């Protein structure tokens, strides 16, 4: 997957901007609040996903303007493609090769990218919810069936929790717990099986990437918090989950909520066998998040056959020179768009292109 050119109009602080990209590393540098991240955000929208900054559609339009428009020319393994996104009236319209789409979500599967930004440090620094979201988002994009199982699990969880809250009002409701336990365990087994398989791949890829970032000086590892054999069948996991729900029923009734299951699981991230969250330095934590995101990229490549474009926002901060050199010159098997503030970092770039941006314009 390669971006050939980008054209942006009325997007955030960018009035009008266009550039032709290099097939390798593209460094976009300049002072803060000049529009570097806005360029990456505009590219990211072509994945069919929402803004990684959590912005509403109307917030993407330049102040005082009625619309924003982005054009992306890119190539996959088969052909060149042209896509356009127009944001107006609080909604986004998209087209691909001149054909109008019902929504930008229909772009999913046409253009692949992975994004790293400072918000993704939550993968390491925040609680389990951030890591579960990372897993679920990655799997939903790759496997529609996972999205269905996850949605079914969430529905069953809501019903079971509602039942637990009402048990004290009607003792006859106890008989319904078995029914909801069964549904929850069936969806849970499918979710857990997919997570285990994904984490198995993620662990291998991310470990190799982190090894390169740290020059083989640190050992990186990723584990699913649920201690379960990845070779178990969905049926075996289902039986295991039924048993866990039965064993936790007394506590669930007391707390009036479901205390066990995939909605409580976590992803354990270790450096040299200790918690990266508790003991990792700022640079190590950033390196961990980067390794996870690039590992996600490798899985997309394995599943789809397309190498995603890497969008790396402010990735150089808090990394020492050797780790910065890896980012600049050793992620060489894919196209990279990288933003930074320090112009001296650009001097270490071997090949590729660099763009200075100021006030929403490329200088």
Task: Describe this protein's structure.
By secondary structure, this protein is of the alpha/beta class. It has ten helices and 15 strands. 40% of the residues lie in helices and 23% in strands. Strand 12, helix 10 and strand 13 (336-340) form a beta-alpha-beta unit.
In helices, the fraction of residues equals: 25-40%
Tell me the major beta sheet.
Answer: 6 strands, antiparallel
- What is the alpha-carbon Rg in Å? 23 Å
Average of the residue pLDDT scores: 91
Low-confidence stretches: none
Q: Indicate the overall shape.
A: globular
- Count of separate DSSP helical elements: 10
Number of strands: 15
Portion of residues in beta strands equals: 15-25%
Give the helix/strand class: alpha/beta
- Measured between the Cα atoms of the first and last residue, the distance is 27 Å
Order of helices and strands: EEEHEEEEEHHHHEHHEEHHEHEEE
The largest sheet has its strands arranged as 2-1-4-5-6-7
Summarize the structure.
With 363 residues, the chain is an alpha/beta fold.
């Amino acid at each position: 997957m390669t971006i050939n050119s980008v054209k942006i109009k009325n997007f955030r602080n960018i009035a009008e901007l266009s550039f032709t990209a290099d097939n390798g590393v593209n460094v976009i540098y300049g002072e803060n609040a000049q529009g570097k991240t806005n360029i990456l955000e505009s590219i990211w929208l072509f994945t069919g996903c929402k803004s990684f900054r959590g912005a509403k559609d109307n917030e993407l339009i330049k102040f005082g303007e009625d619309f924003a428009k982005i054009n992306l020319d890119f190539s996959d393994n088969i052909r060149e493609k042209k896509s356009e996104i127009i944001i107006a009236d609080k909604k986004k319209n998209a087209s691909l090769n001149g054909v109008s789409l019902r929504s930008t979500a229909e772009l999913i599967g046409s253009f692949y990218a992975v994004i790293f930004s400072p918000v993704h440090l939550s993968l390491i620094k925040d609680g389990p919810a951030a890591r579960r979201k990372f897993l679920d988002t990655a799997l939903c994009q790759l496997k529609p069936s996972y999205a269905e199982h996850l949605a079914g699990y969430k529905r069953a969880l809501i019903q079971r929790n509602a039942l637990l809250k009402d048990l004290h009002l009607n003792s006859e409701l106890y008989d319904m717990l078995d029914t909801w336990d069964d549904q929850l365990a069936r969806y849970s087994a499918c979710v857990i099986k997919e997570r285990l398989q994904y984490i198995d791949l993620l662990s291998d890829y991310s470990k190799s990437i982190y090894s390169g970032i740290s020059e083989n000086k640190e050992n990186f590892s990723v584990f699913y918090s649920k201690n379960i054999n990845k070779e178990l069948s969905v049926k075996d996991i289902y039986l295991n989950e039924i048993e866990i729900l039965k064993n936790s029923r007394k506590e669930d009734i007391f707390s009036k909520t479901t205390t066990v299951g995939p909605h409580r699981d976590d992803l354990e991230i270790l450096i040299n066998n200790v918690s990266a969250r508790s003991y990792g330095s700022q640079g190590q934590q950033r390196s961990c998040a980067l390794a996870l995101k690039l590992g996600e990229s490798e899985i997309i490549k394995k599943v789809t056959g397309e190498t995603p474009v890497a969008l790396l926002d402010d990735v150089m901060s808090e990394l020492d020179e050797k780790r910065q050199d890896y980012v600049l010159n050793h992620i060489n098997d894919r196209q990279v768009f990288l933003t930074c503030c320090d112009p001296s970092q650009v001097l270490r770039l071997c090949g590729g292109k660099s763009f200075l941006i100021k006030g929403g314009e490329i200088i």
